[in-house]
Amino acid sequence: MQHIEFPLEHEFVELNQLLKLVGLCDSGGAGKMLVASGDVSVDGMQELRKTAKIRAGQRVRIGDIEIEVVAPV
């Protein structure tokens, strides 16, 4: 499994933008399509809300890639 650590710069990041920012898709629109496919989970639960607010401490998973969202240092 590939692990990506994403340092959060604000209170939250929208799910589709997070997928773009870590390089899993080329644009926010592509991120929305990825979420709509049903392949994305947040904290172990399938997430279909394209602009779900992802906060520090949450884990996003797609396939064998896990993104850990961490608070800024």
Description of the structure:
The chain has helices at residues 15-21, 28-36, and strands spanning 2-7, 13-14, 40-42, 45-46, 53-54, 59-62, 65-70. With 73 residues, the protein is of the alpha+beta class. Strands 1-7-6-3-4 form a five-stranded mixed sheet, with helices on one face. A hairpin with a 2-residue loop joins strand 6 (59-62) and strand 7 (65-70). Helix 1 packs across helix 2 (28-36). The N and C termini lie far apart (25 Å). The model has no long low-confidence stretch (mean pLDDT 94).
Helix share of residues?
10-25%
Mean pLDDT figure: 94
Which runs of at least 5 residues are low in confidence (pLDDT < 50)?
none
Count of helical stretches: 2
First and last CA, distance: 25 Å
Radius of gyration: 11 Å
The share of residues in extended strands comes to 25-35%
Secondary-structure-based class equals alpha+beta
Give the biggest beta sheet: 5 strands, mixed
Q: How would the global form be characterised?
A: globular
Largest sheet strand order? 1-7-6-3-4
Number of β-strand runs: 7
Q: What is the N-to-C order of secondary-structure elements (H for helix, E for strand)?
A: EEHHEEEEE
Describe what is shown at a glance.
This protein is an alpha+beta fold. The protein contains 2 helices and 7 strands. The protein has helices at 15-21, 28-36, and strands at 2-7, 13-14, 40-42, 45-46, 53-54, 59-62, 65-70.
For this entry, give a set of tags.
73 residues, five-stranded mixed sheet, two-stranded antiparallel ribbon, 22% helix, alpha+beta
